[in-house]
Specification:
- Helix content is about 55%, strand content about 15%.
- By secondary structure, it is of the alpha/beta class.
Length: about 300
């Protein structure tokens, strides 16, 4: 798939949060952006214009008047961002920088932004305050066609790398809790691994032993674990799979194979269980709506 290099005014609205009507006014009044126009007078913007708008938006949201920003060239805008109260707006600044890194496929910028955050934040704070909002925004941008799947995958893989490094770091901690084993996996055709990786990080950090299996794991293949361990907590993230109309059947199968007549449990997170309010679950099964709720359980 070719990477998107031209953007509509609706794309700019989705990426910056500035309404298309306002962007048009800024163009007309301050000549902030110079779009290309088709034969039918439809605006399109290149990547440089988009990045300029993102930086302008950051300053505008930080309290700078658009009339002042309009008098600055790109170099001065970048300088002002660096000199502005970044500490007061660190999260927004970091998310903007990571979006720019995504659009440019710039791993160096992503890493610099990430390591700068770690100077004053824990990894947990970076995950909740930066990565989760960033992924939420990127998910919406992908759904609206504003960015290509390659953009979303680029950022997702970089975040997964950071998670794996942090998991490796806590793996050196001694296992102090032996009352249960956590087994983490994703079902068939479920590829959204970031949430599950973070849970693995927290489980190990809390002193438990975990077995991380990753994605595309059939329920039947988990039977082997029952021969080696008792009191297993199976943990899975259902972001797109199993489909909602198949969810009850999946739970019933998991109960019969993994939990019936045992002390095992099964905890489920993800989009597919968010709307389930009054579901009657088998013994040992839990819907965990948020990662913060999961942390309370362990």
């Amino acid at each position: 798939m070719s990477v998107k290099t031209k953007f509509s005014i609706k794309d700019l609205e989705n990426l910056s949060g500035i309404k298309a009507h306002t962007i048009r006014i800024w163009e007309k009044r301050y000549t902030l952006l110079k779009p290309n126009r088709s034969d039918t007078n439809i605006r399109s913007y290149n990547l440089q214009s988009l990045m300029k708008l993102l930086n302008i938006t950051y300053l505008y949201n930080a309290g700078y008047k658009i009339s002042k920003i309009a008098k600055l060239d790109t170099e001065k805008i970048n300088q002002l961002i660096q000199e502005s109260g970044i500490d007061k707006n660190k999260e927004n600044f970091a998310i903007t920088e990571m979006k720019i890194a995504m659009l440019n496929f710039d791993q160096h910028l992503f890493n610099n932004t990430y390591f700068a955050l770690l100077e004053s934040k824990t990894f947990k704070e970076v995950f909740f305050e930066i990565f989760i909002p960033l992924l939420h925004d990127i998910g919406l941008l992908w759904q609206t066609g504003t960015i290509d799947p390659s953009h979303e995958r680029f950022i997702s893989e970089l975040i997964k790398q950071k998670l794996i490094v942090n998991i490796e770091n806590v793996c050196y901690n001694e296992t102090t809790k032996h009352d249960k084993l956590f087994v983490l996996y994703l079902p068939h055709d479920e590829i959204h691994e970031i949430g599950l990786l973070y849970l693995n990080y927290e489980i190990i950090k809390h002193g438990y032993k975990s077995v991380y299996l990753g994605n595309n794991i059939p329920i039947n293949s988990l039977l082997h674990l029952l021969n080696h361990h008792q009191k297993i907590v199976f943990v899975s993230y259902f972001t797109v799979q199993p489909e909602k109309y198949l969810l009850n059947a999946y739970i019933e199968e998991a109960y019969k194979i993994l939990c019936k007549d045992t002390e095992n449990q099964f905890w489920m997170l993800g989009n597919q269980i968010q709307d389930e309010k009054n579901a009657i679950l088998p013994s040992g099964f839990k819907f965990v709506k948020k990662i913060s709720d999961f942390l309370l359980l362990i």
